[in-house]
Amino acid sequence: MQRALRFVSLTLTVITIWCVPAEASIWDWFAELSGPGPFRTKLSKNKRFLVPGTSTLFCKPVLNGAGTNLSDQRWFRVGDNRALCAIVDLRLLESNPNDRYQPVKLTALEFGGVYKVDSYLDIGLSAGFVHFSSENETTGATKGLTRGTVTFPRVVFKPLEFGRKVVAPNSDSRQGGFTFLQFYYKQTMILGELSRDDFFPKTPEPFRVPHDLVPSAGLNVDVAAAAHLIASFFR
Questions:
Q1: Which residue, among 220, 123, 135, 131, has the nearest Cα to 180 in the 3D structure?
Q2: CB atoms < 10 A from the CB of 71, how many?
Q3: Which range of residues forms the domain containing residue 186?
Q4: How far apart are CA 150 and CA 129, in angstroms?
C-alpha cells in the first residue's frame, strides 16, 4: 500500500511539472477558470505582512497500522514518517493580464488533513473559501464575491528532504526542517456558480459555470518547517 501511494503521488507530481504552462509563475500558479485567469502569486505593498504559504499545525504518527490517539498529537511537528497531519494554507494571487477580463485578485484560505506517505511526500484534502475581487480600470468600480472550496487531491513533494534521505539517510533531519520547501499539485472545486456578471469582462463572451474545477501547482514554503530549520542551528 505504501509503495502504491508513493507511486501515485510521485506520478501526479511529475505530470504536473510537465503540464504547467510556460507562462505560469514557478512560485505559484492557479489555472484559468472557465472565465478569468490564469492566476499567479501576488504580494501587494499593503499585504507584505501576509505571506502566502502553508503551515503544519500538528501531526499524529501512525505506526504499524496503530490507531490514532489524540493525546499523542505533536504540535508543529513536521518531520514524521507515516503521520496524519492538520495544515492551513493561504494563497494570494492575481490574474495574468489579458484581453478577456479586467484584473482579478484571488485570496484563498483552506484547512485540511494530509497523510505523510513519507517525510518527503504528502497526500490529502482540504476545504475553505476563496474570495475574488476585481476592479474596472476605466470607471474604478469594484466587485467582490466569496465561494466555498474543496480540494482533492492535494499532493506535496519535498525535494530537499527527498535529497537528504537519498544522499544521507542517517543525517540530522533538523526536526523536519528540510521539508520547508515543497512542490504541490492540487485540484480545487469552487462551490456554487460563477458567471461573467461577477467580474468585469472585456468581451461579450458568455461565462456561467457551476462548481468550477481548477488545478493549481507551484513551489510552497511550510512556515512551521522553516521555523524548525532556523531554530535547529541555535541548539
A1: 220
A2: 6
A3: 2-232
A4: 8
DSSP-assigned states of every residue in the chain: -HHHHHHHHHHHHHHHHHHS-TTS-SS-EE---SSS--EEE---GGGTTS--EEEEEEEEE--TTPPP-GGG-EET----SSEEEEEEEEEEEEEPP-SSB--EEEEEEEEEEEEEEETTEEEEEEEEEEEEEEE-TTT--EEEEEEEEEEEEEEEE-HHHHHHHHH-TTS--GGGGGGSEEEEEEEEEEEEEEEGGGS-BSS----EEEEEEEEEEEEEEBHHHHHHHHHHTT-
Which has the closest alpha carbon to 147: 100, 102, 188, 98? 188
The total number of structural domains that make up the chain: 1
pLDDT in tens, 96-128: 767 889 989 999 999 999 998 888 999 999 999
- Convert the pLDDT of each residue in 29-41 to its tens digit: 566 566 787 777 7
Name the grid cell of 42.
501576488
Q: Alpha-carbon distance 122 to 204, whole Å?
A: 42
- What are the tens digits of pLDDT across the range 65-82? 444 444 444 555 665 678
From 161, 163, 165, 162, select the one nearest 178 (Cα to Cα).
161
3-state secondary structure 73-90: CEECCCCCCCEEEEEEEE
- Among residues 112, 91, 94, 58, which one has the least CA distance to residue 221? 91
Rounded mean pLDDT, 56-68: 67
